[in-house]
Design brief:
Layout (H helix, E strand, L loop, with lengths): L4 H4 L14 H31 L2 H7 L6 H6 L8
InterPro entries: YjiS-like
Protein name: DUF1127 domain-containing protein
Pfam families: YjiS-like
Length: 82
């Protein structure tokens, strides 16, 4: 049985409406993921600087010590809870 190129391609009715298809949309998605990762890294760096500027009393109020400040700044928000 021979398959024509038209039969090999999905028709408009069988594809999901609004589905991202093609290399351009993959590049856009990759750029968005990179941007999100960059923003998260900048946010962690700002948190780290903020915690390094705190004195021991302020860190104790948060329930962490000087040695834990970097770990808490780099940890995902879920792991920051006690």
């Amino acid at each position: 049985m021979r398959v024509s190129p038209a039969d090999a391609m999905p028709s408009e009715s069988t594809s999901t409406p609004g589905a991202a298809v093609g290399p351009f949309t993959r590049v856009v998605a990759w750029c968005r993921r990179c941007t999100g990762a960059w923003r998260a890294a900048r946010r962690r760096a700002a948190d780290r600087r903020l915690m390094q500027a705190m004195n021991a009393h302020e860190l104790r109020d948060l329930g962490i010590g000087r040695g834990e400040a970097r770990h808490w700044a780099d940890a995902p928000p879920v792991e920051r809870r006690r």
